[in-house]
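In the lab's daily routine, each protein ends up as an entry in a very long ledger. A line of letters takes care of the sequence, but it says nothing directly about the fold. The three-dimensional part falls to structure tokens, numbers that each stand for a local backbone shape. The outcome of that step, for a single protein, is printed below.
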Amino acid sequence: MSKDIFEKEKIKLTPETGFNLIGIDYFEDAGNQLYLVAHFEMYQDALNAKKERKNQDEYFVLYKGQNNEFVCR
């Protein structure tokens, strides 16, 4: 996936508040590989949901940082 397209998808899926658990579908076309799994109000809840997934490497948590930057973990 092109880094630019990936960044646009991350921005589109980053919530204004809270934390989104995002999945990666490697079989989709570029621009549609990321999808929302669930939204959480607390980071720990999002992290626990990620840890419960079979393939944790195919998921990450998106949120806005203190300076309104997009953070992915």
About this structure: The chain has a mean pLDDT of 92. The longest strand covers residues 34-40.
